[in-house]
Amino acid sequence: MTARDTALLEFLSQFITxxxxxxxxxxxxxxxxxxTVVLEDIFQPHNASAVLRSCELCGVQDIHVVENNYQxxxxxxxxxxxxxxxxxxxxxxxxxxxxxxxxxxHAKGYxxxxxxxxxxxxxxxxxxxxxxxxxxxxxxxxxxxxxAVENADMHVRIPMFGFTESYNxxxxxxxxxxxxxxxxxxxxxxxxxxxxxxxxxLRLEWTRRTLSRVRQYERxxxxxxxxxxxxxxxxxx
Length: 237
Description:
Blueprint: H1 3-13, H2 18-28, E1 35-40, H3 45-58, E2 62-66, H4 76-79, E3 87-91, H5 98-107, E4 111-115, E5 133-137, H6 146-150, E6 154-156, H7 169-186, H8 196-210, H9 214-224
Parallel strand pairs: 1-2, 1-5, 2-3, 4-5, 4-6
Helix pairs in contact: 1-8, 3-7
């Protein structure tokens, strides 16, 4: 948060209700980046949008969308406004974007966890959570790419007791996220809460998204605080 962002948050907060501010705090108390979700080339908007909705409800803040062959489009009837409160990161600059996504997630300290119904590494009850984990989900028909499976740090499966081969992606994500976030909430030795700096950034983003005339308010803020105006660059050579 810059000095301008801090001042802007204080300014904009006066235009939202106390009830809304309290709701922000309630939700922030359960928000986490200890778990994040990666959607690899999901081409069915209904299922992918249902995953986003589950992420928001379970307190998972960040979703990473890898677009190799298909572009992901949000289904507004399914997400029910949940994307308004989430951070979506898209990987679509080259033909095969999964390696780029994995590289960036590793750089942020995440362990890559491939969701595979036929690998017996871990279940939702045994998956280690002492380090941040990125759960990778693949398409309904083809599953994860070979690269995603082979380059994951760990694999997780949801136990099944019927004839059907697997849960669909939206159900798998909901089951996994509910189990893992409940484990985080019950833990006493994992610091899964967002730091205050990140909470403040979300307070600002959510306040902006709440206000219907936010640009008008920000113009008023800039007029009242010229000290935050950008100083033009002057080439003295």
